[in-house]
Design a protein that fits this description.
single chain; 16% strand; two-stranded antiparallel ribbon; 204 residues; alpha/beta; 8 helices; six-stranded parallel sheet
């Protein structure tokens, strides 16, 4: 808020965005986060969030209790959900500070690329990466400190601050995967995702 800048959060539409919304809702209600305009710029994430609301029996108990009591953890007064592309385009001209949550989580597609193209050249922008960035993706290049990136044919200078928040992953960790494999006891298992070093260690 002090820099009057933009916080960009590339996020997956399924689960990751809902986790972020619930955390922002709590932070704002506890006055730990200023109620600046927050845009969820993802039609898919909006639809997925509605699925969460309609199937609260499958959610964590504290989230379920809040939903059933009428306290929606995925919505708060400063949140604006933009569905149509015309609404999305208006975000760029909305006064900062502001937060923009949009897909895709690795910046390999979706509306986040347009926002990155607009705001990455601004030193007052912060890009918050909240998930794994696969090698070769735009998100990975930004995480690794690229000073210039190509976004949809346009060379974009990166002056924004890029930070990574580990701990948002919804994937099972090594111990969970080993427990699952031991319970299923397959004849053969393949490790097909992850950093080469970690994947090789897990396979062994």
């Amino acid at each position: 808020e002090k820099t009057k800048g933009v916080l960009l959060i590339p996020s997956f539409s399924l689960e990751r965005t809902q986790i972020i919304l619930s955390l922002l809702d709590r932070a704002i209600s506890e006055n730990r986060c200023p109620a600046v305009p927050i845009f969820m710029d993802s039609p898919l994430a909006a639809k997925v969030t509605d699925v969460y609301r309609e199937n609260s029996s499958f959610l964590r108990e504290d989230i379920r209790n809040r939903l059933t009591s009428g306290d929606d953890p995925f919505s708060f007064p400063s949140l604006q959900v933009t569905i149509h592309d015309t609404e999305s385009q208006v975000i760029e001209h909305t006064k900062s500070p502001k937060v923009i949550i949009a897909g895709a989580g690795m910046s390999h597609g979706g509306r986040i690329r347009r926002h990155e193209k607009t705001f990455l050249p601004d030193k007052n922008t912060t890009l918050l990466l909240v998930g794994y960035q696969v090698a070769g993706s735009l998100g990975r290049r930004l995480r690794d400190g690229a000073k210039s990136v190509n976004i949809d044919g346009v060379e974009v200078t990166v002056k924004a601050r890029v930070v990574t928040a580990d701990g948002f992953s919804a994937h099972a960790d090594r111990d969970d995967l080993m427990d699952f494999a031991e319970a299923v006891n397959p004849q053969r298992a393949y490790v097909v995702l992850g950093e080469t070093e970690a994947a090789t260690f897990l396979a062994q």
